[in-house]
């Protein structure tokens, strides 16, 4: 079956406004979801879940949160790692101090706390833009790093400063096997990707994009910049906070403040830029690129028969990775999602030239 | 439908037969605006009646765009008041202006470049949409019905301005003339009572200008929208407007029907210069 939308007529605005208006896309996404939920848990190895799928899904979730802010609302943020940390530590504190709360509520509350913190650090965005805003969000990163390493209450006075998350229990379901953890993350990512997509095709998403593209015109048509920017910071931080809580509880299990350092912020920003600003699909592509490429390089270099000591391999990995990012940004500054888009547009008329 | 030429043939002068104007919809009184030492506007007063097409003209730098910016609250004048629909204000808030039915287009197109034509026009409906964030996140039931309701309204405007074919095209890819038309569509989506058009025909060729004139006249006639426009093309201004105010160096030098203004000595001097 060719990838073609010819003959697929829309007879209602409802059909025209659906997320995947082209039938082939609908089948494709249904197949991917069915495979991810039903087949993957039985097929993949434990290592694959632990090293690849779980970090990929959680980082994709954080990238979705960040993309709402940077890609859709145009407010650059370097504090994503910090907002993940807020989510993780909030979930930890809720879990140990209010153990009677169901863990699902704990995770969502953690998102809520991150949303409040994100909103507070979003206030400078009302006055400053661009690089200056980036510097202001960098302050959030440093402040929150400091807060969790110095204020012992947050880490429950553990002597080393590292905390161990209790085992999650989602209404009686205890996801402790890697495949179960994977399913939990997949569920969260699916729900939040849908929510994010719905938001960006609704009024609020259009007001974010209006602020991003031309803030003066947005104000003239009645969008309040304050509402748009702060709601973007809050919703973005909510999703990033939930991702942080999952990162701590599901992926790491126990962690110290360094787990959410500025490196995390940068790598998430790379994901969003490489994947495609203003694209939900781009978040997945970017997260896959950043998680998979180092693993791939790590496996491939020895496979090619190049015998190097481990230190050199890890250096090479960094170098190739860095070069790939630069090459990618030069070749397609709008990210992988745009490549996919262009490919789809070409496929529509393939094999005819016009 | 009434075309620009048909109106011109009827002859200029007093309001054309069948043109009915209401009371004052907008009155600016003694507006003075300066940026540091530069006086953009000094003591400018005029009023616009409901349902009329009102033109603001003047040489470059006369303060025309500043005047529009004062009316929709983007600039705050040092002196003077703006009375809109009977409410007198010193400082207009852009959000309140939009809420009360003032829409505008810009001299340099101010579209949302990353969005499609449809989404751009849909942003004009933002103030009319009521559903909260949670409903929007679900995109289901009432939220979806609301989206579809507004989509239907926007589609009527798209039909009206004949931009159906570019509905899904990102506006950044459109030619200049169409971008201007999309911007008008976005303003119309707000269902404005007063529409401010800042040089709607700048940079257009003759056909595009004719189209734009036709749209402006149609909007005025079919929706009863009051229109205040800035334009440099005198043929267009004299053709379509009911009244004209002339600014020069931030002061009002003439005010009246097109042929009164055309014969005014101060206006001729401002445009052609005077012998010293």
Characterise this structure.
The complex is a heterodimer of chains A (354) and B (276). The mean pLDDT of chain A is 89. Helix content of chain A is 71%, strand content 1%. Chain A has a two-stranded antiparallel ribbon with strand order 1-2. Chain A has a single domain (52-349), classed as Orthogonal Bundle (ABC transporter involved in vitamin B12 uptake, BtuC), CATH 1.10.3470. The two termini of chain A are 19 Å apart. Chain A is mainly alpha-helical and 354 residues long. The radius of gyration of chain B is 19 Å and the shape is globular. In chain B, the strands form two sheets. In chain B, strands 6-7-8-3-9-10 form a six-stranded mixed β-sheet, sandwiched between helices. By secondary structure, chain B is α/β, with parallel strands linked by helices. Residues 1-13 of chain B have low confidence and may be disordered. Chain B has two domains: 1-101 and 192-276, Rossmann fold; 111-189, no CATH class. Chain B is built from eleven helices and ten strands. The interface between A and B is large, with 31 and 40 residues.
Q: Which key features would you list for this structure?
A:
heterodimer, A: 354 residues, mainly alpha, ABC transporter involved in vitamin B12 uptake, BtuC, 14 helices, 2 strands, 1% strand, globular, B: 276 residues, alpha/beta, Rossmann fold, 38% helix, disordered N terminus
* SSE order of chain B: HEEEHEEHEHHHHEHEHEEHH
Please identify, by name, the CATH architecture of chain A.
Answer: Orthogonal Bundle
In DSSP terms (H or I, runs of 4 or more residues), the helix count of chain B works out at: 11
The number of helical runs of chain A is 14
Task: Give the strand line-up of the largest sheet of chain A.
Answer: 1-2
Main sheet overview of chain B: 6 strands, mixed
Q: Please, how many domains of chain A?
A: 1
Amount of beta strand of chain B:
15-25%
Q: Approximately how much helix is present in the residues of chain A?
A: over 70%
- Structural class, from helix and strand content of chain A? mainly alpha
Mean pLDDT over the residues of chain A: 89
Based on CA inertia axes, which overall geometry of chain B fits?
A: globular
